[in-house]
Amino acid sequence: MDEILARGHVARGYLGVGLQPVELPDHHKGLIVLSLEPEGPAAKAGVLVGDIFMKLGGKDLDDTEDVQSALEGCPVGEGIAAVLLRGGSSTNVTITVGERPRRS
């Protein structure tokens, strides 16, 4: 309610990435980055096309729906921890959650 009074709407978090589920060795799953908004939150945090999101906010990512679920607990403007697989190595980044642009 406070958010509606302050903003006039409920802000929905976003990262500015296009993701696709991918199966990895040892039956692990993740989400590969297919596209990035050039000035989006993930790009600003150093995420690259081809990175594979393994965890977001401490939660495993098996499907794109898992991203929105992880973002529900993180307010817009706050940082959320992500574990990425990049070139076979694990990389940790913190992404400042952006506000999903509203459609008119």
Structure description:
The protein has 104 residues and is α+β, with helices and mostly antiparallel strands. The protein is built from three helices and eight strands; from the N terminus they run αβββαββαβββ. The protein has a single domain (13-99), classed as Roll (Pdz3 Domain). It is 16% helix and 42% strand. The strands form two sheets. Strands 2, 3, 4, 5, 6 and 7 form a six-stranded antiparallel beta sheet that branches. Strands 1-8 form a two-stranded antiparallel ribbon. A hairpin with a 3-residue loop joins β2 (17-24) and β3 (28-36).
Question: Topology of this protein?
Answer:
Elements: H1 2-7, E1 13-14, E2 17-24, E3 28-36, H2 41-44, E4 52-56, E5 59-60, H3 65-71, E6 79-86, E7 89-96, E8 98-99
Antiparallel strand pairs: 1-8, 2-3, 3-4, 4-5, 4-6, 6-7
Brief rundown of the structure:
It is built from three helices and eight strands, in the order H-E-E-E-H-E-E-H-E-E-E.
The name of the CATH architecture is Roll
- Overall geometry: globular
Q: Give the class from helix and strand content and strand pairing.
A: alpha+beta
What is the H level of CATH, i.e. the homologous superfamily?
PDZ domain
Name of the CATH class: Mainly Beta
Q: Which residues form runs of ≥5 with pLDDT under 50?
A: none
- Kindly report how far apart the N and C termini lie: 22 Å
What is Rg?
A: 14 Å
Q: Helical region count?
A: 3
What's the order of the H and E elements? HEEEHEEHEEE
Q: Helix fraction?
A: 10-25%
* Annotation, overall tally of beta strands: 8
The tally of structural domains comes to: 1
Mean pLDDT, to the nearest integer, reads: 89
Strand content: 35-45%
By CATH, the topology is Pdz3 Domain
Q: Largest sheet, described in full?
A: 6 strands, antiparallel
